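W.,

You were right to be curious about this one. When I first looked at the sequence I had no strong expectations either way, so I just let the prediction run and decided to look at it fresh. Below is the sequence, 173 residues in total, followed by the output.
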Amino acid sequence: MAAVTARAGYMMGENVDRAWSTEHARAWEGFLELSRQLRREADGVLEPVEGLTVSMLGVMGRLARADDLTLRQTDIAGAMGLSFSRVSRLIDTLEARVLVERRPCPSDGRAVNVTLTTAGQALTRKAQDAVFAFVGERFFASLAAPEIATLADVFTRLIGRLDGAGAVLEDCG
């Protein structure tokens, strides 16, 4: 864990030494490291599912829940917190594999709609099942119910402070 907590000093310099306890560094760096590891492992779980990535599944999962399986490309980028160009490249890849289709938006000639295809729907379900099992095994299986509740409360509060989106986590409960 020493190597993990040392990164806080690399990132924030002497401020960490002056103001943070070891627990501060462990909490911050542990959160970052766990996020990195889980994201990498989730990508590894998805790779055998037709070479998908977490980001690709993010696009497809949003489309799967959208009315008519369709969203504007700009709305997908905004919802995912990714640049328009990054989402455009993801959609290029998904479109080349006939998992999504792009169409002009009928109500705004400047916008492009993206629709999940039938093949995309089937693959989305398969990939979501794989990620659901992974999260259950690699994240929740190591936590007791009170710990899950504590994490949910802490993350909801922190997210709410950052961007007012705390209600998003509350709605999932």
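Here's what jumped out at me. The radius of gyration is 19 Å. And, maybe more interesting for your project: Residues 1-46 form one domain.

Coffee later to discuss?

I.
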